[in-house]
Every structure is written in structure tokens, then in C-alpha cells.
Amino acid sequence: xxxxxxxxxxxxxxxxxxxxGNRYIASEWRALYESMYVQLTAPFLEIEDAAYGxxxxxxxxxxxxxxxxxxxxxxxxxxxxxFVIGKxxxxxxxxxxxxxxxxxxxxxxxxxxxxxxxxxxxxxxDIPHSHLKFDIPSAPVFYTxxxxxxxxxxxxxxQLKE
Length: 162
Fold this sequence. Notes:
Helix content is 40%, strand content 22%. The chain is of the alpha+beta class. Strands 3-4-5-6 form a four-stranded antiparallel beta sheet, with helices on both faces. Strands 1-2 form a two-stranded antiparallel ribbon. The protein is globular and about 45 Å long. It starts with 13 loop residues before the first helix and ends with a helix. 29% of the residues are buried. It comes from Paenibacillus ehimensis.
């Protein structure tokens, strides 16, 4: 049986990277969510959004690891008070402003650089989730933009979500 791990190669565009990530997420997220649902439902009452971090810690690392193996740089220097989930999703590089309490959207961003260290664009990771109970109403989704400067990234996210 063929594993659905994401496959990246060093000459991919940011759009191709996002598409391959979405293929992987679409094939994996539901089974993982169902397998972790009972385990995370009760703790959600205490740890709230951190329960989603535990889920993303299982789903996302392979995406970033495979990108790095292909020669892309997706991480950045961490600051002392950074909170990171899913290997490379940093909370200071995210916005959460959209949706109702039972279907919120938090969008993380990762600037993607090629082997030469040049930015090729930004991978946006949109995580739908509920603040009322442990629930991920639909698959996380990758979007891509060509921008790599924070102000332009934030503007790109706003254009996408508003």
C-alpha cells in the first residue's frame, strides 16, 4: 500500500507546494481527527485551544519535514516566548479573526525559501476549529501567496479571508 506522504522536490513553485500539502492533508486529517477525538474531547474543557495543538503535532510535522528534505527552508529563528505547534506553526505568525465561535479560522504563515535562501512565497495554513467544544469542522487547508514580507503576508491573509 502506498503511503500518502507529501512528496516535494527542490524546483517546485509555492503553488505546487501548497497543492501537494493539501493532497496529503485531505487524505489524512479525518482519520487522525477521529482517532484522537475521544482522547482530546475531555481535555479540551481544561486546555481549550491547546487540544488543537496536540492534533496538529501529529498531522503537520511530516509536511514540514518532507519540505526540508527537498531543500526548502520553512522554519525561522525562534524567540524566547514563541509557542510552536505542528513543528513549524508559530503563534506570533498567525491571525485568528474570522468565523463564529463554533467554526473559527486561525491562519498561520511560513515563508518558504529555496536552497539558495531566497523566498519563493508563503505557505498559509488555515485551521478551522471550535471554541465551544473539541471540533474541527473541516480539513485544514494550505493557501499560498507570493509575498514574503510580514505586512504583505497579513494583507494577503485578509484578502483571502474577508
